[in-house]
Amino acid sequence: MRGRAKDLSLGGVGLQLTDQVATGIHCSVMFEAPLNGNMVKVSATAKVVYCILRGTDDYRVGLQFVHLDAANNKTLAELML
Question: 20 to 30 Å CA-CA from 8: which of 35, 41, 55, 77?
Fold first, then answer.
């Protein structure tokens, strides 16, 4: 499933999706973001904590990271600077 990241923190990510997802499920999430002129990838296991219909066909989805390895955690921390 593809979406657009709207919020990003060390604890999770907020997404805009066109499909509804069930809360409570665990999923893999991967995204790319610019860092020092390069695109870097971050991947993690996350839990869906909310899914809210916004408008007629967009969902706002909140994911909480439940597993982020050391390398991805470092990259995410660098993105937060």
Answer: 55
The DSSP code sequence of 1-58 is: ---EEEEE-SSEEEEEESS---TT-EEEEEEEEEETTEEEEEEEEEEEEEEEEETTTE
- pTM of the entire predicted model: 0.91
Do 28 and 42 contact (CB within 8 A), yes or no? no
Q: What is the C-alpha to C-alpha distance for residues 19 and 60, in angstroms, rounded to an integer?
A: 10
pLDDT tens-digit series, residues 20-79: 999 999 999 999 999 999 999 999 999 999 999 998 889 999 999 999 999 999 999 999
- CATH top-level class of 4-79: mainly beta
